[in-house]
């Protein structure tokens, strides 16, 4: 054997294993591609792998040209011509970052070039996702991207922890945390009485407060709700005229005090209070059972006054309350944090506060040259049916033209139906031009709803048979099937969601995780502190950690009705981790490998 033959044999022995491996991989790839041509095999488990490989999901989903035209920047730039008139012409918008003209939904298929899918600033975004499936992580990114003011609701302080540091660079950050949930203290207070010198304002706020309260235990709920709203509006009007707080309003309800009648009977130039005085007088003179039913409804509405800490947040001194107009124009951020459970007393407060911000945004926008807020205010309403039951069924029809972006998140469609009724839920569903559905739900109605929304498609199916001589023959037929069957909607991979926008075919996107963003990573590496006071030993702090002085205006069973100062002695429990955004560590496609990064405040 020659030396050349020996060298060739040694070379084959050295690289023979690698060559065999490459051949096997090529054979498996060719077989897989050939089998995936079958429409049947594109469904089921094949869809899961195609999404993992970032391939086209399959027939019936939006293709590249549709993604670019209807989910990409062209559609957003077209809407931004009227949604953001202050940004200049079309070419000026082409150079802007997407956060100024769009709401980012996620990335569609593509390895080298991932298609970014957006909703426009005039699209109402409805998000349905079960608990701990990535909804909060995606929503935190939308709060960071919002070009204007942001109003965000949550049942935990995870959104505050993830976004407050970066949002403080755009404007002042506020936290309204009446129940002391989590680590962050209340930094702003607001009184429903402020501004109720105007009877229209009093009627509007009373209606929102009463509508958001749970009065399911009262018979003839509709009648008592209307009566309670009328009485509460008159009481708020009387308290505002006498420069009193919500504590005195609650005291009047509990003790049947005739003081508001005396206040309303005083003649004031240019102001008519006879109607309000008559409403309160008729309420006090009514039969005891009628009066008790109305009072029970009102006490349910103002349950927050039974907790000294919560009462302190809604009884600010004159001039200390939230300046809504300044908040909207200075691109501030307001976090509304509520406790979990059915017995929380904050939903009426949150609904009234958000309703007033919505009303103020509508007024400010209507007086601008283009009749809308620019930049728009973003309402990121997480767990909206539970903690912020505002009348979305009537708001969403006019939100797009007023400079307001609504992102409504819920765990299931049944929550929306329970809060706003079947007709109201249909209105919200139809008004939401962009919808995002996460996987993992087990509700058959939600799965069927998503499947029907994606539509159907006709595919060629081949049937194999044998003729009389025993030879194989294939027969082609056409079959109408669902684009996304219910079982596939349930088994979507982690961090994937079905996106549907307007009249365009659906797509499946890979949603954003807030901790994987470059700006969040830079903030965490810098170790900067969040400019918000923290709760220490269950105390409420205001403006940098002052003492926990609480107002107790109804001591001695509300008989004296004097404002006293008290200290909250009983500590509130603190969670084990401040960063509580849902994160799935079993996702092999995670960009941020390893543990959850340290919070901006330096805590692990």
Written account of the structure:
The protein is 42% helix and 14% strand. It is elongated and about 105 Å long. The protein is built from 22 helices and 15 strands. Helix 6 runs parallel beside helix 7, helix 8 packs across helix 16 and helix 9 packs across helix 13. It has a domain of 110 residues. The strands form four sheets. Strands 5-6-4-7-8-3-9-12-13 form a nine-stranded mixed sheet, with helices on both faces. Strands 1-2 form a two-stranded antiparallel ribbon. Strands 10-11 form a two-stranded antiparallel ribbon. The longest helix is centred in the N-terminal third of the chain and has 34 residues. It is of the alpha/beta class and 604 residues long.
Q: Helices, strands, pairings?
A:
Elements: H1 3-36, H2 45-52, H3 64-70, H4 73-83, H5 90-94, E1 102-107, E2 116-120, E3 125-128, H6 135-145, E4 150-154, H7 158-167, E5 173-176, H8 199-212, H9 221-241, H10 246-255, H11 259-265, H12 274-285, H13 288-301, H14 308-313, H15 324-329, E6 333-337, H16 347-366, E7 377-382, H17 384-387, H18 392-399, E8 404-410, H19 413-431, E9 434-438, H20 444-454, E10 456-466, E11 472-482, H21 486-490, E12 496-501, E13 507-510, H22 518-526, E14 549-551, E15 565-567
In total, how many beta strands?
A: 15
Poorly predicted spans = 215-219, 540-604
Oligomer: single chain
Supply the helix-strand structural class.
Answer: alpha/beta
Integer-rounded radius of gyration: 29 Å
């Amino acid at each position: 054997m020659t030396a050349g033959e020996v060298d060739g044999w040694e070379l084959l022995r050295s690289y023979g294993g690698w060559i065999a491996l490459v051949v096997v991989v090529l054979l498996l790839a060719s077989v897989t591609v050939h089998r995936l041509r079958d429409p049947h095999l594109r469904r089921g488990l094949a869809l899961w792998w195609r999404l993992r490989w970032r391939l086209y999901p399959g027939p019936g989903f939006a293709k590249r040209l549709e993604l670019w035209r209807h989910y990409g920047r062209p559609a957003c730039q077209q809407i931004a011509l009227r949604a953001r008139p202050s940004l200049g012409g079309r070419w000026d918008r082409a150079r802007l970052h997407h956060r100024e003209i769009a709401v980012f939904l996620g990335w569609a298929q593509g390895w080298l070039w991932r298609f970014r899918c957006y909703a426009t600033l005039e699209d109402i975004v409805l998000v349905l996702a079960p608990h701990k499936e990535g909804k909060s992580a995606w929503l935190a990114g939308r709060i960071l991207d919002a070009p204007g003011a942001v109003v965000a609701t949550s049942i935990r302080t995870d959104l505050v922890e993830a976004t407050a540091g970066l949002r403080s660079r755009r404007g002042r950050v506020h936290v309204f945390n009446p129940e002391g949930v989590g680590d962050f203290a209340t930094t702003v207070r607001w009184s429903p009485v402020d501004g109720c010198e105007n009877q229209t304002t009093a009627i509007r706020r009373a209606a929102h407060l009463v509508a958001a309260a749970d009065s399911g235990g009262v018979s003839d709920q509709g009648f008592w709700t209307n009566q309670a709203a009328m009485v509460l509006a008159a009481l708020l009007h009387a308290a505002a005229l006498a420069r009193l707080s919500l504590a005195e309003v609650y005291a009047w309800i509990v003790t049947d005090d005739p003081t508001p009648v005396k206040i309303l009977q005083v003649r004031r130039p240019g102001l008519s209070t006879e109607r309000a005085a008559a409403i309160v007088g008729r309420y006090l003179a009514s039969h005891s059972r009628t009066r008790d039913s109305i009072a029970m409804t009102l006490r349910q509405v103002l349950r927050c006054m039974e907790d000294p800490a919560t009462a302190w947040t809604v009884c600010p001194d004159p001039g200390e309350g939230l300046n809504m107009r300044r908040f909207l124009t200075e691109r501030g951020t307001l976090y509304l944090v509520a406790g979990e459970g059915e017995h929380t007393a904050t939903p009426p407060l949150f609904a009234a506060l958000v309703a007033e911000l919505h009303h103020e945004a509508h007024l400010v926008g209507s007086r601008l040259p283009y009749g809308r807020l620019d930049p728009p205010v973003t309402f990121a309403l997480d767990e909206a049916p539970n903690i912020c039951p505002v009348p979305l069924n009537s708001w969403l029809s006019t939100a797009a033209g007023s400079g307001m972006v609504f992102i409504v998140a819920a765990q299931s469609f049944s929550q929306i139906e329970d809060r706003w009724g079947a007709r109201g839920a249909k209105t919200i569903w139809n008004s939401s031009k962009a919808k995002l559905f996460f996987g993992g739900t087990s509700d058959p109605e939600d799965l069927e709803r998503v499947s029907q929304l994606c539509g159907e498609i006709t595919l060629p199916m081949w049937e194999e048979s044998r003729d009389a001589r025993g030879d194989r023959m294939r027969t082609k037929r056409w079959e109408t099937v669902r684009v996304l069957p219910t079982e596939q909607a349930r088994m979507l991979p982690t961090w994937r969601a079905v996106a549907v926008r307007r009249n365009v075919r659906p797509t499946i996107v890979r949603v954003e995780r807030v901790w994987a963003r470059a700006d969040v990573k830079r903030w965490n590496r810098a170790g900067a502190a969040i400019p918000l006071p923290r709760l220490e030993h269950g105390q409420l702090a205001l403006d940098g950690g002052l003492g926990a002085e609480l107002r107790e205006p109804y001591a001695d069973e509300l008989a004296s009705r004097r404002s006293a100062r008290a200290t909250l002695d009983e500590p509130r429990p603190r969670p084990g981790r401040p960063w509580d955004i849902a994160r799935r560590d079993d996702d092999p496609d995670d960009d941020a490998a390893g543990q959850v990064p340290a919070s901006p405040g330096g805590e692990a």
